[in-house]
Write a structure and sequence with these properties.
With about 400 residues, the chain is an alpha+beta fold. The protein has two domains: about 15-55 and about 160-385; about 65-140, M1 Pyruvate Kinase, Domain 3, CATH 2.40.33.10. It contains seven helices and 22 strands. The strands form five sheets. Strands 13-22-18-14-17-16-15 form a seven-stranded mixed β-sheet. It has a six-stranded antiparallel β-sheet with strand order 3-8-5-6-7-4, with no helix packed on it. Strands 1, 10, 19, 20 and 21 form a five-stranded mixed β-sheet that branches. β6 and β7 form a beta hairpin.
Length: about 400
């Protein structure tokens, strides 16, 4: 669109002129050291009016039960001992329970609230035995004609929380230096740019490695730490103890984890931040599965699609994973619809100038952000670590 005349800053809306230094940073350096923040800047941000923010997490239960009896049971036993768990409560009188190992269909004859499952065996005239650790699952309900209503069942959501953390990055120059000509340019401008990069790097690292904590919470000067992905996620695949237990995971095993774990919940397209060693493993896998992908509106963060039947991974080699010890063998998979950047109202990234005392012969400025990371759901994200070999 052609525009005549002199342009002024007031003519530009927020789409063209970010008012926030965090958004400005992601526009200036899209492939810099904070790609997670760059992607979160694109619509996954929300303010909070309290430094502790909470959300409710809910999911449908698996409704599975595990047999707990070393000797097992013959085909006539009607009292089965199971592991104690809340899922036992879903086995109410009239519920159908199936043994996943044998296919035997059983009907629950009394509500189960403890470790004893009362059942009518061998529905349909079949004859099966039950062994220790057999997995049973609830598969419907069978009511008798003219029977009374069954036992009602419900389940509650869980509450998760995190804190906003105060990030401060100061920089300054003396008034003498400000007035000195240097061939390398204005030192105050240089310090301002470098401080913003360090500030965003601090936030990025906290969102990956921070641990949720509050010090002196009842005092006038509490200190809060935001929880990061590596310390919060419960879906963790450790190649030193899982898979083959020796730091190894080959292509077939990786695909199996994508099917059984990574894409079990959430979106069919997720973003994987990887270290250099993991990037090399993926590069060695079937190269016809890689497709360069331009993600519109993602602040220019380069992603590469790794296609599978379970879902697609959008892979990005995280620059800071090259700097942080131990992260070369890591992959952190995030489902962005279930991840948010939270900032305290009025405390998102801003530049505060002239913070020096009255007698200081110079200028001290700082970037300040009070923010944190929020996981709307946990199981949709995955941390794969210690993937040192794909042999």
């Amino acid at each position: 669109m052609a525009i005549q005349g002199v342009r002024g800053t007031g003519e530009f809306g927020t789409d063209f002129r970010p008012k926030n230094y965090r958004e400005l940073f992601t526009l200036l350096e899209p492939n810099g050291n904070a790609p997670l923040n760059a992607l979160l800047s694109f619509g996954s941000s929300e303010s909070t009016d309290d430094p502790e923010y909470k959300n409710f997490r809910d999911e449908l239960p698996d409704r599975t039960l595990t047999v707990n009896n070393g000797a097992g049971y013959n085909d006539t036993a009607t009292s089965i001992t199971i592991d104690a768990a809340d899922d036992n409560k879903y086995a109410v009188s009239g519920a159908i329970v199936i043994n996943s190992s044998t296919g035997e269909v059983m009907r629950v004859t009394a509500d189960t609230t403890g470790t004893t499952l009362a059942v009518a065996r061998n529905i349909g005239g079949t004859t099966f035995t039950i062994t220790d650790n057999d997995q049973l699952f609830v598969a419907g309900f069978a009511a008798a004609e003219n029977a009374d209503v069954g036992t009602p069942i419900t389940f509650d959501a869980t509450v998760a929380s995190n804190y906003t953390q105060i990030f401060r990055t100061a920089f300054g120059v003396s008034n003498t230096l400000k007035s000195t000509y240097l061939r390398t340019g204005d030192k105050e401008d240089e310090a301002m740019t470098k401080a913003l990069k360090l500030h965003m790097s601090d936030i990025e690292r906290a969102m990956f490695f921070g641990r949720k904590h509050e010090e002196n919470g009842s005092s006038a000067t509490p200190r809060r730490y935001t929880g990061g992905l590596t310390t919060t996620l419960t879906s963790v695949i450790d190649c030193n103890s899982d898979i083959d237990g020796d730091g190894t995971m080959n292509e077939a095993q990786f695909d199996e984890q994508l099917i059984s774990s990574v894409f079990k919940f959430g979106s069919k397209e997720k973003i994987a931040f990887v270290g250099a060693t993991v990037a090399a493993h993926l590069q060695e896998f079937g190269k016809d599965r890689w497709r360069p992908e331009s993600v519109q509106g993602a602040y220019g963060v380069n992603l590469t699609r790794y296609a599978t039947f379970a879902g697609d991974l959008m892979v990005h080699l995280h620059p800071q994973f090259r700097q942080v010890p131990g992260m070369a063998t890591s992959m952190i998979i995030v489902d962005f619809p279930y991840l948010r950047y939270r900032f305290l109202e009025g405390r998102d990234t801003a530049l505060y100038e002239n913070r020096q005392g009255n007698g200081v012969d110079g200028a001290i400025h700082e970037y300040l952000t009070e923010c944190g990371l929020e996981l709307l759901q946990d199981k949709v994200h995955t941390h794969i670590k210690n993937w040192s070999s794909n042999a």
